[in-house]
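Hey,
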Amino acid sequence: MRLHELHKDDKAKIIRIHADKPLKDRLASFGVMRGEELTVKGCSLAKQTMEVEVGGTLIALRKEEAEKIEIEKHE
């Protein structure tokens, strides 16, 4: 499952990031890396951007970035 498939208040664990090194490094600088837990705080209309909380930090991700983050959803 990919991050862009989640909805507001869903929680998940990051399994893998399918991106090139520059994007992986940028995401890691915000705490978005394998093994981290996250919570979706909100989505724009048409889900073009998502607000995600990772380790107490709120970040906004574009849909193209969220599609590259493989997650395991918590039920």
